[in-house]
Design brief:
Layout lengths: L52 H48 L7
The structure holds zinc ion.
Length: 107
């Protein structure tokens, strides 16, 4: 059975501890402009590849984390649809929104 989705946000220890404080490249070595994201292999401005192993490793990791998060979200939806059918899911979402007055998803 599904757990109710209205769990209180856990006071995670991951919020307080800094993962690492390594030096990060935040400007493009080619054009010298500040990078907009840390997940792209390429400069957001001129398209040059950021030639830094640490940066690339971090960018790959960030992309992986983002992908996994999206996949997890998607799996919840797929599983729910399999159990309730899409109409059941929409009906439940409608109820939830009325009850909570807000959506659980950021943005
Ligand atoms: Zn650049």
């Amino acid at each position: 059975m599904n757990e109710p989705e209205t769990k209180p946000p856990a006071p995670g220890p991951q919020n307080t501890e800094k993962a690492e404080t390594a030096i990060e490249i935040v400007t493009c070595p080619e054009c010298g402009r500040r990078l907009l994201t840390k997940t792209s292999m390429l400069c957001n401005w001129c398209g040059a590849k950021i030639n830094d192993q640490d940066y690339q490793a971090r960018a790959a990791l960030n992309r992986l984390e983002r992908d996994q998060q999206e996949r997890t979200d998607l799996e919840v939806v797929i599983q729910e649809e399999a159990e309730l059918g899409i109409l059941g899911r929409l009906r439940r979402l409608g109820k939830q929104n009325k009850a909570n007055g807000r959506s659980d998803t950021p943005l």
